[in-house]
């Protein structure tokens, strides 16, 4: 493994649910989008879940489109980790904006979350 890889990048690379689209390098390709990364750690400080989100503002609709391609990266059967990741994702939206967030953990599963922020 290359030494230049960040802790985040190593987690995505080594995790069975990891994907290049959750890599830091994907943002270089999708450079017209803003990107944010969520990192969830256990009590020992080890990463147990991540999600890279690409964000696009749609001003005419007062909407923020948040897309996590092939994310999150974690044990997707662990609802505690998933809920922590989703709660952190909701905090990324501007107050009062509508959110349409799409996250896809595998090609055959797609989950959508819609809400208005307070």
Write the layout of secondary structure elements.
Blueprint: H1 7-14, H2 26-29, E1 34-41, E2 47-58, E3 63-68, E4 73-74, H3 79-90, E5 98-106, E6 109-116
Parallel strand pairs: 3-5
Antiparallel strand pairs: 1-2, 2-3, 2-4, 5-6
Describe the protein's architecture and organization:
It is a single chain. This protein has 118 residues and is α+β, with helices and mostly antiparallel strands. It is built from three helices and six strands; from the N terminus they run ααββββαββ. Strands 1, 2, 3, 4, 5 and 6 form a six-stranded mixed sheet that branches. The longest helix is centred in the last third of the chain and has 12 residues. The termini are far apart.
Please name the defining characteristics of this protein.
3 helices; globular; 118 residues; 6 strands; disordered C terminus; alpha+beta; 6-stranded mixed beta sheet; single chain
N/C terminus separation: 43 Å
Q: Which outline best applies?
A: globular
Low-pLDDT regions: 107-118
Which H/E pattern describes the elements? HHEEEEHEE
Please tally the β strands and state the result: 6
What is the radius of gyration computed over CA atoms, rounded to a whole number of angstroms?
14 Å
Number of helices: 3
Helix share of residues?
Answer: 10-25%
Main sheet: strands, sense, barrel: 6 strands, mixed
Mean pLDDT: 80
Instruction: Please indicate the percent range of residues in DSSP E strands (runs of 2 or more).
Output: 35-45%
Secondary structure category? alpha+beta
């Amino acid at each position: 493994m290359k030494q230049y890889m960040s802790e985040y990048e190593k987690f995505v690379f080594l995790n069975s649910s990891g994907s290049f689209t959750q890599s830091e390098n994907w943002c270089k390709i999708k450079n017209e989008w803003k990107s944010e990364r969520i990192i969830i750690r256990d009590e020992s400080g080890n990463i147990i879940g991540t999600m890279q989100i690409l964000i696009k503002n749609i001003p005419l609709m007062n909407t923020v489109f948040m897309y996590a391609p092939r994310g999150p990266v974690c044990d997707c059967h662990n609802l505690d980790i998933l809920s922590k990741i989703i709660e952190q994702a909701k905090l990324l939206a501007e107050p009062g904006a509508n959110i349409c967030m799409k996250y896809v953990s595998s090609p055959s599963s797609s989950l959508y979350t819609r809400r208005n922020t307070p």
